[in-house]
Amino acid sequence: MATETIKLILGIGETLTGRLLLFNSLNMHFKEVRIRPYSKCALCGDSPTIHELIDYEAFCNVALPAGGNAAGQEEKSFEVTGSELKQILDADRPFTLLDVREPHEWEINRIEPARLTPLSKFESYISELDPDDEIYLYCYKGKRSMTALKKLQDRGFKNLRSLAGGIDRWALDVDPSMPRY
User: Fold this and answer.
1) 82 and 155 housed in the same domain
2) Does 28 share its domain with 75?
3) Would 130 be classed as within a structural domain?
4) Are the beta carbons of 137 and 164 closer than 8 angstroms?
């Protein structure tokens, strides 16, 4: 799909429009399959309803690191890198670290001294948190922790950060011995 995107952007080559290319890497075989157009497709059907790229900040309902928040407040990054979080952990200062992944993910790996507060049940944990605390959140890749961060913002929490790239990025950059999934 990346190759198709490049061909479309550059306007070169023959695209796979109406076809799908299947690749079996075990046998090194390629197979081309013809695909019938879907007349109700929102993008390319008879009456398309999608005409432009989406606004990701509005779609995800969270402030992007380079932009301001929904209330129009001063621009501020809500993300922290793995090395920055490692420095905070090593500094032995008070803060709260929340893992918003699900219990089965928690069993694979975690960052100590995190507290498991799954996003699926996050609302029930909010009352246990102090709005004045410095709170760091993480998940697998970063999206769920930004969603949890937004929920806390909406409740008046101010000192919030999300681990950029989540625990997967942490395992790559900070703790390569950590299991990845």
Assistant:
1) yes
2) no
3) yes
4) no
DSSP string, 27-74: TTEEEEEE----TT-TTTSSS----S---HHHHHTS--TTS--TT-PP
Q: Which residue's structure tokens are 């023959």?
A: 14
Decide: 18 and 35 in contact? Cβ < 8 Å. yes
Query: Are 113 and 155 found together in one domain?
Result: yes
Q: Is residue 45 part of a domain?
A: no
Q: Are residues 73 and 118 both part of a single domain?
A: yes
Q: What is the mean pLDDT of residues 147-151?
A: 96
- b/e sequence 51-68, b meaning 16+ C-beta within 10 Å: eeeeeeeeeeebbeeeee
Residue 97 lies in a domain: yes
pLDDT in tens, 1-19: 788 889 888 989 998 888 8
Domain that holds residue 92: 64-173
Rounded to an integer, what distance in angstroms lies between the CA atom of residue 3 and that of residue 16?
A: 10
Q: What confidence tens digit (pLDDT) does each residue in 100-135 have?
A: 999 999 999 999 999 999 999 999 999 999 999 999
Q: In this structure, is the dihedral angle defined by the CA atoms of residues 129, 132, 97 and 64, taken in order, positive or negative?
A: positive
Give the domain CATH number at 135: 3.40.250.10
Per-residue confidence at 67, pLDDT binned at 50, 70, 90?
Answer: very low
